[in-house]
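> call design_seq(struct)
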């Protein structure tokens, strides 16, 4: 599988994750009849934060995966970094949503490590 097609898998999966988290917020807002803020609803507050956190990390990694693919970084690396990042995001969603600190912390590690690795790869390949 070529690198760009490999990247497309993780782009698609992570976009679906963002859509799912966004729908979860919208449905909770509708059920709670809260259009702005949290209205004292702690479930809504947590869901907004979970979606916000995903929105902070996912776009940068998706850009990085596509850039890496265009730069010719092997598909195996795209898969390793994409799977690790995506699993980290899912683990973080669970940990933050269910207030399970080990899952939340592990999810962040599995988010940040692939981001740091791909950033270094891009810098290296950009300078090479």
């Amino acid at each position: 599988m070529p690198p760009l097609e490999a990247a497309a898998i993780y782009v698609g999966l992570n976009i679906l994750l963002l859509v799912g988290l966004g729908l979860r917020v919208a449905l909770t807002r509708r059920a709670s009849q809260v259009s702005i803020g949290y209205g004292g609803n702690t479930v809504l507050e947590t869901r907004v934060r979970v979606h916000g956190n995903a929105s902070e990390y996912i776009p940068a990694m998706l850009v990085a995966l596509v850039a890496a693919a265009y730069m010719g970084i092997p598909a195996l690396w795209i898969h390793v970094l994409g799977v690790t990042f995506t699993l980290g995001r899912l683990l973080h969603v669970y940990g933050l949503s269910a207030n399970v600190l080990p899952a939340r912390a592990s999810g962040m590690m599995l988010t940040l490590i692939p981001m740091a690795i791909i950033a270094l790869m891009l810098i290296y390949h950009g300078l090479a």
